[in-house]
Amino acid sequence: MNKKLIGTFIAILLVGTLVVLMVKSNMEETKPKETTNQLVEDETVGIEQGDTPPDFELTTLDGDVVRLSALKGKKVILNFWASWCGPCKAEMPHMQKYYEKNKDSANVEIVAVNMSTQERKGIEGIVDFVDEYGLTFPIPLDTEGFVIDTYQVISIPTTYMIATDGTISMKIVGPMDENMLGEFVEGLD
Q: How far does the chain reach from its first CA to its final CA, in angstroms?
């Protein structure tokens, strides 16, 4: 009777394992494919080095519209930040100094996307931050969190360096100083 009980137990285990594997396989087949961008249908779109970054269109604090693809031909520093972020506070003066010195001569644009869905003090906190640091580069607001999700921003600041051909050259997680910005931009085509 013990052998019969052990045999039945092993058979149930095998059948259970097969059922789990079949269900898992069916779930993977029916799972919708994730896309990295809802605006551009292109296999080269992504957030890795050499990819064309996902396009977006966001409104700035000033009411201007920034579309990433419209900046093709320029070197782009695409930065993600929030006003409460300590490393962002350390980085912003360096970005502003670099921008003032190089925006025209280096053919560079800084696009500092504010993670508005993560802001603790709302628009007022963003405006206070921009005023405190005297920021003059575009500050688009990601009010729905779509761009943050698309670019898989987890730690801030996160910066993508985009070359003149519109492809991602590198991703930097953490703050940069003015010298680092200069070196990274020089490496862009």
A: 77
